[in-house]
Design a protein that fits this description.
Order of helices and strands: HHHEEEEHEEHEHHHH
Number of helices: 9
Structural class: alpha+beta
Helix content: 25-40%
CATH topology of the largest domain: Pnp Oxidase, Chain A
Radius of gyration: 20 Å
Oligomer: single chain
Number of strands: 7
CATH architecture of the largest domain: Roll
Largest sheet: 7 strands, antiparallel
Distance between the termini: 44 Å
CATH class of the largest domain: Mainly Beta
Strand order of the largest sheet: 2-1-5-6-7-4-3
């Protein structure tokens, strides 16, 4: 399908060049005061993992700002809230601990990137401290920070992600329940029943 594929870093650098020295030096390798503040205000992050076979997964994680706990300059922990039980990311971590995180704060165009090594933890005291809405998580993801830096806002400015007038896709696309219904209809249920049950199930299992 693709006729011209870049296969070496030398070719890639010849096309796009090298980063500015400041771009290289911005990686602190630890969570400084600015990174801690960003995490404290972030209600959402993306967690990227890869399995032993190289297959990748990116999972969204979200809760009230500050749901990710910073333990010290090189460690943080992410509570595992109820999901669909596919466990793609956690399963990957059991085979390959390398992880990449992108923290987002609504309305803020730059992001915080954290890379490191992660593990699935079940420390009782730690899990209790991560309780939300009266529910303690069964597990959490602990991360040892190896890289940490702020990422420039160009992608957000180009996409106009935080500008409501650009959110036309949200109105044009069907609900997830409707899309799933079209992919895999549920015998004995109407679309309206399935949409209602999906929404009720979502509310019931948030925590």
């Amino acid at each position: 399908m693709f006729q011209h594929v870049v296969t070496t870093e030398r070719e890639l650098r010849a096309l796009l060049g090298h980063p500015h020295e400041r771009a290289v030096q911005k990686d602190l390798g630890r969570l400084d005061a600015n990174a801690r503040a960003f995490i404290a205000h972030a209600p959402f992050l993306l967690l990227a993992t890869a399995g032993a076979d190289g297959r990748c997964d990116v999972s969204p994680k979200g809760d009230a700002p500050g749901f990710v706990r910073v333990l010290d300059d090189t460690h943080l922990v992410i509570p595992d809230r109820p999901g669909n039980k596919r466990l793609d990311g956690m399963t990957n971590l059991l085979a390959n601990p390398h992880v990449g995180l992108i923290f987002l704060v609504p309305g803020k165009e730059d992001t915080l990137r954290v890379n490191g090594r992660a593990c699935v933890v079940r420390d009782e005291a730690l899990l209790t401290s991560l309780e939300a809405m009266g529910k303690r998580p069964d597990l959490a993801i602990g991360v040892e920070v190896e890289e940490c830096y702020l990422h420039c806002p160009k992608a957000f400015r180009r996409s106009k992600l935080w500008e409501p007038e650009s959110w036309t896709g949200a109105r044009a696309l069907p609900s997830m329940a409707r899309a799933r219904w079209e992919q895999q209809p549920v015998p004995g249920r109407t679309l309206e029943e399935y949409e209602r049950e999906s929404e009720e199930g979502l509310r019931r299992t948030m925590y």
